[in-house]
# Entry
Amino acid sequence: MSRTMAPKNSAVFLLGLLLSCVAMSSAARILEEAVPSKEEHQPEGPQIPKVELPPFPEVHLPPKPELPKVKLPPVPEVHLPPKPELPKVELPPVPEVHLPPKPELPKVELPLVPEVHLPPKPELPKVELPTFPEVHLPPKPELPKVDLPPKPEMPAVPVFHFPKTEAKPRELPSR
# Structure
């Protein structure tokens, strides 16, 4: 059952991914094309007050208890019997193989390819193109210079500073 479900699940996933990409690109296009009108002036956001947190309280832990040392019993020695020696096996020598010589293939003479004589290319008649009359266009009119209004300034983004705390080195547990 899992072998047939995996391709279906991946196909559904890929289809969903494709649809989300299409939706995101169309939404981005709509946002790019939307031009704010002059009447819509967005007011600046409220100023966020800086919050000062109280200092972190110190934590006092009790001292670590010392554990008693545990003595392990000695490991008993194990005496294994010696490994038996395996007999040496001698293989018979490989016999030499004498193959018959390769037969020579007969030489085959290929027939000569006849020469092909093509007729000469016919000369194409020369065609004279008609001359086009010269066209005199009137000069381009100068466009009037338009003064654009100044660009509005971007509102300042408030910066949030995290309060700095003193970092204390932690003691690592000893083993």
Notes: The chain has a mean pLDDT of 83. Residues 2-33 form the longest helix (32 residues).
